[in-house]
Write a structure and sequence with these properties.
Blueprint (H helix, E strand, L loop, with lengths): L1 E7 L19 H16 L6 E5 L2 H8 L8 E5 L7 H9 L7 E6 L3 H9 L8 H6 L6 E6 L12 E7 L6
Parallel strand pairs: 1-4, 2-3, 2-4
Antiparallel strand pairs: 1-5, 5-6
């Protein structure tokens, strides 16, 4: 059973207009929300083998809150910034099968499009919320009944959970 966690970065700050979109850091709310999601993952004993993280400042900063998870391999990728979901899917499909669980920490709309495309044939009560909005710091939990990452397009994907910081209040 392969597991994919798709997470959107936490809320970014717009306080400094001189920064580019790529350079924006997290807002105070973003830091609180990133901490909430990290604590949820810790409390639920979520284990992640590999993380693909957009190298934009707000995604890297969001990822820093996940350090207590002790993810053994982390790859910060500039080409994930503004990537479409097909590019992200291709990255995941090229992952070695040594990794049973992957975190993809990225941006909208790619997070929503990727999750929706992979779970197209499965109805989960929270999926309707995710289709409308993949909010900042939200994380989707997907499981695949296949043997390798290169097969995830053709095997059954189940959206096991969709958690937002607001759900955790």
């Amino acid at each position: 059973m392969l597991k994919l966690y798709v997470m959107r970065h936490a809320k970014s700050s717009w306080d400094d207009a001189s920064l580019t979109d790529y350079q924006r850091s997290l807002s105070a709310r973003g830091r609180r929300d990133a901490h909430k999601i990290a604590q949820f993952l810790i409390d639920n004993h979520i284990s992640i083998d590999l993380a693909y993280v957009s190298s934009a400042k707000r995604t890297v900063e969001t990822f820093s809150y996940l350090k207590p998870l002790r993810i053994p391999v982390s790859k910060f990728l500039k080409n994930h910034y503004l990537a479409n979901y097909e590019s992200l899917l291709n990255r995941i499909k090229k992952t070695k099968n040594d990794y049973a669980s992957i975190l993809l920490l990225n941006h909208e709309p790619a997070c929503k499009h990727l999750t929706t495309a992979l779970t197209r044939s499965y109805i989960f009560p929270k999926k309707k919320f995710m289709q409308n909005k993949f909010s900042t710091a939200a994380i989707a939990f997907l499981e695949f009944d296949c043997e390798g990452w290169d097969q995830i397009n053709s095997c059954k994907a189940v959206l096991k959970n969709f958690v937002t910081p607001k759900n955790l209040n």
